[in-house]
């Protein structure tokens, strides 16, 4: 075009939406703008709107509106006589319509001060229905000679002259969309049209016709003129410029409201859903730090129960709502992930963002694209690493604006600490715009971690409830005071009458200590072993009065019923004895459903005392008025300072107690070590990349090469300089420098066949092999990758598919072998129950019936048999029985294993099965495993009847609850997502309103996630190939 195109909004203020409705108005707006009805006695609808004055102005300016492409805005600049002629004809036609309408059969109401108006036909008017287009077309052709079409592009002529197009234009207004688009608006039903009384459309000006014709250029046959192409390009360019301008305005400020930059609605949700009306002063200070405002990395450290998580959640919401970026929340345990998903699902529904669970075998790699919605990924440590890898591989890591790590001190926790370090190192190296927030209650060497994360720090010793620490020696209680020379200051003597028999059984006076607070208040007793937990709970019950049974007797009866139901009629004998007194034990020997029931009962006050292991302190938050440490040991190891602080930190319930108490029971021999324990500084958090002979360094180097982050030794050296290991090189790498360690690891990866050097001349870059790619994408331990490849290859030669046993054996975790020793009589009994094909498979992997029979008979076996294979097959038999029966109690009884161990085996197997699936997807020779392992992963994850699986996909819904929901009529995810929480709580037994709300919110969120996944798949299917050939 010769004329210069200008893009400028006519007014800084967006124009009123109260405008004339035309055929260019989007359908959704046209239908919603129904007129007011006249009184019934008239039977008519009368409405008048002023014509938009901008339609009479010269077309000097144009601006795009994302909701209404042309409405309320001027069009494209052109000084040609053609457009001037169009204006004159259009004005004449509008005046002709006005004159015709005033003298017509339909009454109108004049708007004061406006000579121009339109009329709406009454719904009761029986006049023949005629489109306004008919008269308009006639007058248009009379006043517009053929000469005017000489300058019109051929594509527009083709559009106007096409008979099919003419037919489409004659359709009634109700059937039209806002403009000729490829994807029409959703149609309106006849009933809806009758209800809304959609009026006949107003006359379209010639300019409107031209706009519509220009937008139709793209839909015309291939013989399109150059002029039409240029005009369409101009429109596209102008729309793009306008959209960019609006985006720049929206990004100019990220402050959306008064609540720390968030809308007031967020504050209301926190109050309604969490019961928190105001923040602590330290939380307000932390949220207003310069490092937070300027999005610098931050580590904040406070005592347990200080309210750290709420600060993290507010920062996450700010990232999602204000900056429109995704966020990643890393938590240490599956139970914490599920709890957080349930808690934040309601926020996601109210504030329009996705909450996605990455724990166990759940989670998509890479995640579904949000389609306009931002996502909060809540993940365990291992899943977070896999998620970050997939985002790097698809160049989407920059979409994650914030990474929050809870329990940051776990950087020093063995192999899991190494995975946290790998994850954060990759984020720091790849995405400079991603903010990292770390929080922890216990950090010793804060400066090292600050240097690693390039972060600022904030520390505070705030506790919502005062903590008083005590130790007990013999029958005396001493208060802990590190300022004292002896560290302990005498407080009082225990006043409790013990019989001689009782003194022998309860030498540590545990009954005396707990009865000072229960049943009116709560108490936690930390024990060194799982067996000790059960013994202590049973011992306390022996000496409690019968009055304890009467306390909340009905609620405890309900709890026993639920525990029995969760075990399919079976109930733990220890819990059967202790629960009536308000006591229970809590450790990994319980099933996940039993643990959940015990935790909920304790939080509700039904149980007043839990005997537990140290894992409770690091897991779900269950505070108590008094915390008792049965011994300063965890198993055979003396307590670490960090473990001690986590345990005693559970003392004191905010909003309930004025103070909390912790009592450490000591023997004389432990007094010296105990003084160091209560007064020593926190342990130093060291890098664990060198853990297990440098396994972490090997895995890290393999993945950064595979993800194309680095491809040379020098680049690897540069990457390694940004790790915590580099910061602590002098402390950790004592024998060799980090550079030497790096070189040795690269050579070792070459020897294993996981990394190779490019064969291209003068290249020499490092590349991963197919096996190397499968190893890091499957998150397979480098110790087992070769063994796994051999087992899968051997299994493929004679894969047995008439039962699950062979597949189960292939996905039984290697690291579970050491935790279980076979019972040979049980082994032989189960072996004889196998089919002939299954026994043949067992012999093929290296375990024959004769071998098992000899071991069961106690005879020596001369033949050399791989004990790892023997133990894996035994565990595979356990898993097969579990899949067949889905009754954990009966399987535990048959194999003489604890139900907690079987639960751990099942969850570990489902995770490893998912890893093996990703491993085989990268190796063409293992193509048959893809479909087989997909279904097996699903079965191992839930291990229930098939009809319950959709319900158990919802975060926090266990088998017992799924059965209740199914029996109540909530048989699918859609049933649950559309349920009324009030009805749900009344229908399902022992389901509280808060739980019902969380279940419904989680179901809705999961349903949205599945819908987005299907939509993304459809979009990919319909997307035009970028490399499509054209003439």
Describe this structure in words.
One of its GO terms (cellular component) is chromosome. Residues 509-701 form the Helicase C-terminal domain. Residues 289-461 form the Helicase ATP-binding domain. Residues 1-42, 173-207 are annotated as: Disordered. The chain has 1031 residues and is an alpha/beta fold. It has 46 helices and 19 strands. Strand 18 (755-757) and strand 19 (766-768) form a beta hairpin. Helix 14 runs parallel beside helix 15 (414-430) and helix 38 runs antiparallel to helix 39 (888-895). The longest helix is centred in the last third of the chain and has 30 residues, at 993-1022.
Topology:
Elements: H1 27-32, H2 81-102, H3 132-143, H4 154-161, H5 163-169, H6 190-196, H7 206-215, H8 226-250, H9 264-274, H10 281-287, H11 290-293, E1 298-301, H12 308-321, E2 326-330, H13 334-351, E3 354-358, E4 375-379, H14 381-393, E5 400-405, H15 414-430, E6 435-440, H16 446-453, E7 456-459, E8 466-473, E9 476-480, E10 488-493, H17 500-505, H18 510-514, E11 523-526, H19 530-542, H20 547-550, H21 553-566, H22 573-578, E12 583-586, H23 592-603, E13 609-612, H24 615-618, E14 626-629, E15 633-634, E16 637-638, H25 641-648, E17 659-666, H26 671-679, H27 691-706, H28 713-720, H29 724-727, H30 729-732, H31 738-751, E18 755-757, E19 766-768, H32 770-777, H33 785-797, H34 805-810, H35 824-832, H36 836-845, H37 849-856, H38 867-885, H39 888-895, H40 899-921, H41 929-942, H42 949-952, H43 959-967, H44 973-977, H45 981-987, H46 993-1022
Parallel strand pairs: 1-6, 1-7, 2-4, 2-5, 3-4, 5-6, 8-17, 11-13, 11-14, 12-13, 14-17
Antiparallel strand pairs: 8-9, 9-10, 15-16, 18-19
Enzyme class: isomerase
GO molecular function, one term: 3'-5' DNA helicase activity
Keywords: ATP-binding, Chromosome, DNA damage, DNA repair, DNA-binding, Helicase, Hydrolase, Isomerase, Nucleotide-binding, Nucleus
